[in-house]
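Ticket #4471: complex job returned nothing on first submit. Input attached below:
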Amino acid sequence: MTEPARPRLVFLGLPRTGKSTFLGAFWALIQSPFEASVREASFSGDRSYVQRLADQVARGEEPDRTALDADEELAVEVYFEPEGPADLLIPDTSGESLRVLAERRIWYPRLLAACTDATAILVFIHPERLRVPQRIVVAAAGEQTAPGGHGESAPDDVEFHPGDAVRFQAQEHACTAAELIDVFENLAECWSDRRPIRVGVVISAWDRVGGDPKPTPYEWMAARLPGVLATLESNRDVADFEVFGVSAQGGALEDRDELLAKGEICDRVFAEDRDGRAVSLVDPIRWAIWGS
Ligand SMILES: Nc1nc2c(ncn2[C@@H]2O[C@H](COP(=O)(O)OP(=O)(O)O)[C@@H](O)[C@H]2O)c(=O)[nH]1
Ligand SMILES: [Mg+2]
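Support reply: We reran it on our side without changes. The output follows.
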């Protein structure tokens, strides 16, 4: 019998980037008789956590927030067709622990342990949650409607002349690209003795990305996160890299009835490879384990 592969995957991403939803949908596909390419290879272990996530995704509900000190994980032997068995371990890491790394420069112990042992990392990015620079009128309108603001609409020609040194707080002002590049550099340190490792970028909520024509996942990264893409492209000796667009919910929760009318999870979810070709939602994990 083939020895199972022993992949150690880590889902990394800032808070609310779609990690738990993807884990729940992946578990639902493993359970589904309609998804022939993955199945459980052994029935041991406690699945209550991933089952709860899968149930929430199935019902079109928000997944529970993953607490900083949560130690929930998916630990199960899965059979992938045609590659074979994999003794899979995926902790559901909290996005807050990544913020602690990027914004406070502290490795949260559980995150460090998971990243040090990892054979591959999937980095989650929510396309509508990028922190990017704002135009002054938008920022000023935000300040005026914030508690303590004046509540008036912002004039079109706001000028920006800060009297004091410009205030900077990483938690509020660091852009997503800078945080992700910094995280990549920290990870590269962890892996200095075993390179290259696989790093897959998973753009979640891919149903929310529009455009005519709709960009491919690679084009989306090149347009929205060019610095992150350039960092990955120029560090192939550190990490093999792929990018996917995934919709692990299959649509927006605001249109819940419409979403549920599309059917079971396996009928709703979809994914694209870097060139926009339709692939299985399982493929980012398959690539992370086997590189194909
Ligand atoms: N439209 C859409 N929203 C999604 C999708 N996946 C996740 N979300 C939303 O993104 C938010 C964060 O998801 P969650 O899985 O809790 O992120 P986590 O904090 O990284 O675990 C939630 O509001 C989800 O409903 C998707 O495929 N499509
Ligand atoms: Mg979560």
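The radius of gyration is 20 Å. Closing as resolved unless it happens again.
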